[in-house]
Every structure is written in structure tokens, then in C-alpha cells.
Amino acid sequence: MEENKKSGSGRIKFYIMLMLVSIAAVAAEFLIFKLPEVKAVQILAIVLLGQITVIFAYESGHVYEKMFSGAGHKPAMFFVVYMLMIAASVVMSAMPVTAWPIAVIYVLLTIISNIPCGIAAGSICLFITASSAVDAAVYPFAYVYLLAGISASILVAHLDERFKIGFPVIIVEVILLAGLGVTLITTVNGFSIEMLIYPVVNLAVTLILMLFILKAFSAKVIFKEEDKYIELNDPECMLLNELKKVSPEDYHKTVHIVYFCDRVSSALGLDVPKVKCAGLYHRVGVIGGQYNWDNTRAVCEERNLPEEVMTILKEFEDPNTPMVQPEATVLFMCECIVSSIQYLFAKNSEIKLDYPSLIEAIFEQRSQAGVFKSSDISIRQYELMKKVFMEEKLYYDFLR
After folding, report:
1. Which residues contact 16 (CB under 8 A, 6 or more apart)?
2. Which of 33, 99, 136, 396 gets the most CB atoms within 10 Å of its CB?
3. Distance CA 222, CA 157 (A)
4. How far apart are CA 318 and CA 310, in angstroms?
């Protein structure tokens, strides 16, 4: 209770500071660019309303994490970087409109928060820059930067361990190139090569900075996330060897379950290492004497398993916790299929099973029992999961 109060108090202070810095940024614009008072009040009102949107988007990241980049929530880092970007936005007002590297700001703010928050915060920076720009015909360019910025924020969602972001980056660059080019030609009287210097430099700088930021983010966050599962997902790691000694039956069953966790989570587009890790450690409670959530939690906490894996295991094992995450649902069905087939083989090792019919019956039974009632798994994922199990006919003989 006390921790929740402290956390709530810290967030309130964080959001108040965002508002205060916004007021300071508009005041700086008012003094530096000698804005009319009425315009300064308009800018301040819009910026403060925009900050409310930023706060709402940032806060919503705690609830709908799967929509976002997965970088986690670090308010102090977000505050520092966001304030630096607001300061940079004030400075950019003095630059030619075709030279604003706005897309980079969107990417950076998205990486340290989430996609909706990055779009909202980047748009505030764009508005601050555009509201005091030295160029008169700024608003057509501002719309181009808005579209490029939104595309750049969405680009973060394409990051994975393969770093295949070539096409999304090209999309951002094409929007900037076409938008700035057409807007420049249609708003400026007469054409000259000198007109293209700032847009070309802007495109080059934006491309270099975006690739640098995304590569750094990939190395620090994505590959770091992958690396922490390498040792954990080794069937011969110390904890699993301990499980093998305590209960060989549970260990060998776990190996089969992890195979299906890998296959199903890959097909459904889920976080494969995370699901495999949960599958490997879902039976470690027997090391504590009895298979239950309390023992599993104690063993996993002692071995410092990732929090996201603990959440899956809790939903899977704790009868008082609803099974919401698709990863927990996948683990449940993998365990259910393996257990059911092993049970039938234990009764009669020579039995010939109609696997598609059996799997269809198991899914139907679990569905009627309300297993999927609270799950976030989609109908498409449900059907695809069933299809994967039905196609694994050859593997089931290993369960005899």
C-alpha cells in the first residue's frame, strides 16, 4: 500500500514537472522570438493540452504494453530526453523549415516511452518549432513532418532481433523527400539548386541519426532481452538439472511441452524465448516439495527469473489469477495436449490415436470449461494454435 502511494506521488510530480517545463519553453519562445502576447497564450494553451495527451499516452503504456516498443517505463529518462527535445524544438524554430530533423525526435521519444506517447510528444515538439518558425510558409511543411514523424514512431514496432527495418526507414525517407520536394516547389517562387541543399542534408542527417538510434536501441534492449534467455532456455542449465534429479518424469515431460511452446508461439507471432522459458520452468515447484504456485514462485525468485516469465507462470498455475496473456494460454494448451496424449499412451502403448479428432475434442472441452474466457488470444490465434497441434502428427509418437 505504501509503495503504491509513493509510486502515485512520484508520477504526479513527474507530470507536474512536464507542465512546468512546457510553460518555461513557451516563455522562452515568447522572449526570444518576441511573440505577440495573444499568440503566446494560444501556443501555451495548445502545448498544455498536448502534454495532457502525452501524459495519458505514457500512463496507458502500463496497461497496454503489447502495443508499444517494449522498452519499459523509465520516467526519469523520459523526462530528461523529452525536455532536451523541447529545448531543441525551440532552437529549431530559428532554422530553415526544410532543415528540421523532426523524424529523429519522434523515433527517440517513442523508443523511451511507447508508440502513442512518442507520437504525442513528438507532435508537441513539432508544434513548438512551427509556432515560432522564422519561415512564413511553415504549415504545409509541418504537415509533411507530422506524417513522417508518425511513420517514424510506427517504425519502432518493426524492430526485432533481425533488425529488418530497411523498408520502414525507406517509407519515412520517401515521405520526407516527396513531401518536402512538392511543398518546396509549390510554395517558393522560382527554382534553384540551392533550394535542395537543406532538404538533402535533412534527409541524410535524419537517415543517419535514425539508424544510429535504432541500432543502439536494438543492441541495448532487444538483443539484451534475447541474451538473458539463452542460458535460461538451455535444457541442461543448473535449475533444470535439479528438476531432472528430483523428478525425471516432470523433466522429460517439460522437454516435450517446450517443443510445442516453440512451435505454437512462433506460429502465433508471440515472444518465443519468453514462452519457452515459461514452459521450461513451469514444473520447478516440485523442487520445493510439491507442485504449486507458491513453490514455483519461491524457486523462480531465488533463481531471478524475468518478471514477465513469472507473470505467465502465475496465470498458468495460480487458480486465483485469471489466464489473460496469450503466452499463458499457449503454455496451458501445450501442457494439456502433452498430458492428455501421454495419459492415453500410458493406458495402452499400442493404441492408435486419431490426433486431429482428439485435439479438436480437447480444444472444445477446454473452451466449454471457460479456459479462454479471460484470455487475450484472438479467434485467429485460437484456430492457428489448433492447426499447429493437428499438423504435429509425427512428433506425438515420441510421447509413447
Report:
1. none
2. 396
3. 12
4. 11
Output the CA torsion sign for 307, 311, 313, 317.
Answer: positive
Specify whether the CB–CB gap between 136 and 96 falls below 8 A. no
Average pLDDT per block of 10 residues along the chain, 400 residues long: 52 82 86 84 83 77 47 72 91 88 90 86 91 76 88 74 66 86 75 78 90 76 56 65 84 90 90 87 82 85 83 90 91 94 88 91 92 88 92 85
- Greatest extent of the chain over all pairs of C-alpha atoms, in Å: 89
Report all structural domains of the chain as residue ranges with CATH numbers, in order of start: 2-224 (no CATH), 233-399 (1.10.3210)
Strands, E, within 57-136: which ranges?
none
Residue pointed to by grid coordinates 501524459: 55
* Count of helix runs (H) and strand runs (E) in the chain: 17, 0
Tell me if 263 sits within 8 A of 395, measured CB to CB: no
pTM of the predicted protein model: 0.57
b/e 141-162 (16+ beta carbons within 10 angstroms → b):
bbebbbebbbbbbbbbeebeee
Residue 65 confidence (pLDDT): 45
Query: Which long-range contacts does 195-199 make (Cβ < 8 Å, 24+ apart)?
Result: 198/96, 198/98, 198/99, 199/98, 199/99
C-alpha cell of residue 247? 523428478
Residue 271 is predicted with a pLDDT of 82
Is 84 in contact with 100 (CB distance < 8 Å)?
no
Q: Within its chain, how far is the Cα of 364 from the centroid?
A: 32
Distance CA 100, CA 93 (A): 9
Q: What is the pLDDT of residue 221?
A: 58
CA quadruple 361, 365, 368, 373: dihedral sign: negative
So what's the pLDDT on residue 114? 81
Nearest to 378 by CA among 223, 268, 259: 268
Give the end-to-end CA distance of the chain in Å, rounded to a whole number.
51
- Angle, alpha carbons 21-22-24 (nearest 5°): 60
